[in-house]
Specification:
The complex is a heterodimer of chains A (331) and B (279). Chain A is mainly alpha-helical and 331 residues long. Helix content of chain A is 76%, strand content 0%. The longest helix of chain A has 34 residues, at 39-72. Chain B is mostly helical. Chain B has 2 domains: 8-49, no CATH class; 59-275, Orthogonal Bundle (MetI-like fold), CATH 1.10.3720.10. The chains are: A mainly alpha (331), B mainly alpha (279).
């Protein structure tokens, strides 16, 4: 242990006491001051006392920086001189960046759909089991949700590990299987043909997210009224027909929610790519390119432009979310 | 739905295979973390099946803890706890106002919060680095606490408001008639009644901060203050072939989330489902 750990823990405790106590005191003082105002004004001011701190935090650390990022994206690498659209034209003339966009698209097309399908499969199958095995099965599928992206990358890095030296036994599961089938050992994450390396990274994300889809879809399936299924059965529908014509339409809203949630997550995928390949061998995604531009190439303008592209890509989803929220409130 | 049956043997085989498929990667890591360094590097972890009583050891754990992981573990706790506690109180006040008070701008401000839920965090990084830089805050715990407090705020307000909206409106009205101020109603009635939502958000935020790499990488970086995700990342990068250290290191970083997962699974699920839209 390098530094004094007790000092750090003390620091943390002070932060909690000061932060919580200070915030509580701030609210108390503001509330007290607003109480001194004449009745009508007190009622007018008080709501802003309650939401004020939250709005200030969000404005200073989120909204203001976001607007500044848009401005930086039109400036040079040190955010000093204006360069117009240079950062953007440079990005879109760069084949590697186009490849990055294609990768993001690949992630978006595969991960949400695959996670929903696996989640639905597990939810339906587990529903047939008795209570205890059902719980065990669901826990196994759901457990990866607790694991960080870096942890998951370690787990799968071990699966994909390959040894090349003559006489070395394979310690990674995938290479062990492929070499025992007579293939030469290969470095899996460097194979960019048919985007194989991207797909191997995508598998990790599906492994992580299927459990989330399963939990939500499972509770939706359990909410499907028994009599709708019974009625279809009496009408002579097969089990497959019942599933697709009776169950699926009723759980469709949940399917959409799960899909959109995973979609938002995947658009911003970073950790897995950064840790596993650092974006090499044509595996980069937008969030990874952002970090590379910022830290490896020290180009704040280019980095800002990358993030603005990501932001623009997210806007349709954001509008959709806001509309959904309004619809819900109207009900 | 229980009467909806497929071939029951096929179901059992199918679900069993899926579970095995899902569990094997983690199992491989777990087994390897307790194997001897030489064994990890010379044979696959599955060979223990035929030789289950070969030498098991805690050596890898001891080594990785001594090489910085213990320090990082303390740092992760110091980062995560305040970064969880701070946003909750600020958000609870705001959620109360959004739910129970009428004021001009309420809907616009709340739509702003809903919109911010999906904004990629990266969009704030470069200007925040400059802002923190001008106060010499980069690399300090204060910088990550502030960043996580802000980044968690839209979600916290959203979850807490959604929950408070389900509380019976009459309670607040009768409190008002009894002459209770908003401040009193908030502390004495709404906060105690909102404990499930507060707990769900707290768990979600704690795990999110604990598992976070990106924010820690940008505002804390490597060094004396680095958190477990950074330490693990460096193990992978610098010593990609030291699998005995990597496997043990990965499990040390996973202990806290897995503990939360197995002990508070119900709240955990609630927090995840409520909070999974976070950027």
């Amino acid at each position: 242990m390098s530094d004094d750990p007790y000092l750090k823990i003390l620091n943390g405790l002070i932060a909690i006491v000061l932060g919580v106590g200070g915030t509580a005191a701030l609210f108390w003082v503001l509330n007290f001051l607003s109480g001194l105002l004449p009745g009508k004004w007190e009622r007018r001011v008080k709501p802003y006392v309650f939401i004020g701190p939250a709005i200030v935090v969000v404005a200073v650390f989120l909204v203001y920086p976001a607007l500044m990022t848009v401005i930086y994206s039109f400036a040079d690498d040190n955010s000093i001189n204006w360069v117009g659209f240079d950062n953007y034209t440079a990005l879109f003339r760069d084949d590697e960046f186009i490849g990055t966009l294609v990768n993001n698209l690949l992630w978006i097309l595969i991960v949400p759909a695959a996670s929903v399908i696996v989640g639905l499969l597990v939810a339906v199958l587990a529903d047939q089991l008795k209570a205890f095995p059902e719980r065990v099965a669901k826990s196994v599928i759901f457990m990866p949700m607790a694991i960080s992206f870096v942890g998951a990358s370690t787990i799968w890095g071990f699966v994909y590990a390959t040894r090349f030296a003559q006489g070395d036994k394979q310690i990674g599961l995938l290479s062990a299987i492929s070499t025992s089938l007579g293939f030469e050992p290969v470095a899996w994450l460097r194979i960019s043909d048919y985007n194989l390396n991207d797909l191997l990274l995508i598998v990790i994300m599906i492994w992580l997210q299927a459990g989330f889809a399963m939990v939500l879809l499972s509770s939706a399936i359990k909410g499907v009224p028994e009599d709708t299924v019974e009625a279809a059965r009496i009408d002579g529908a097969s089990e497959i027909q019942i599933f697709f014509k009776v169950v699926v339409p009723q759980i469709w809203p949940t399917v959409i929610v799960v899909f959109v949630t995973i979609l938002i997550l995947v658009m911003k995928v970073f950790d897995i790519v950064y840790v596993m390949t650092g974006g090499r061998s044509g595996t980069s995604v937008l969030a990874n390119t952002f970090v590379l531009e910022l830290f490896e190439f020290g180009d704040a303008g280019r980095a800002a432009a990358v993030v603005v592209v990501l932001m623009i890509a997210v806007i349709p989803v954001m509008v959709y979310q806001m509309r959904q929220f309004k619809k819900q409130e109207a009900r | 739905m229980r009467s909806f049956t497929l071939g029951s043997v096929a179901v059992r085989v199918g679900i069993f295979l899926l579970c095995v498929l899902w569990f094997i990667p983690t199992l491989g890591l777990l087994i390897s973390s307790f194997r001897d360094e030489a064994d990890v590097k010379s044979s696959g972890w599955w060979t223990v099946i035929t030789d289950p009583f070969s030498q098991w050891t805690f050596d890898s754990y001891r080594q990785v803890l001594e090489s910085g992981m213990a320090n990082a573990f303390v740092n992760s706790i110091v980062v995560s706890v305040p970064a969880t506690v701070l946003p909750i109180m600020i958000a609870a006040f705001a959620a109360y106002a959004f739910t129970f008070m009428r004021f001009p701008g309420r809907n616009v401000l709340f739509m702003l919060i809903v919109g911010l839920l999906v904004v990629p965090l990266q969009v704030a990084f470069v200007p925040l680095l400059n802002l923190f830089g001008s106060y010499d805050l980069n690399g300090t715990f204060l910088a990550v606490w502030l960043a996580h407090t802000a980044f968690g705020m839209p979600l916290a307000v959203f979850i807490l408001r959604s929950y408070m909206a389900t509380l019976p409106q009459e309670i607040i009205e009768s409190a008002e008639i009894d002459g209770a101020s908003h401040f009193q109603t908030f502390w004495r009635l709404i906060v105690p009644m909102s404990v499930p939502a507060l707990a769900a958000f707290a768990i979600f935020q704690f795990l999110w901060v604990w598992n976070d790499l990106l924010v820690a990488l940008i505002f804390l970086g490597a060094g004396d203050n680095e958190v477990v995700t950074i330490t693990l990342r460096d193990l992978i990068g610098d010593r990609g072939q030291e699998w005995h250290l990597l496997t043990a290191g990965a499990f040390i970083t996973m202990t806290v989330p897995l503990l939360v997962f197995f002990s508070l699974q119900r709240y955990f699920v609630r927090g995840l489902t409520a909070g999974s839209v976070k950027g």
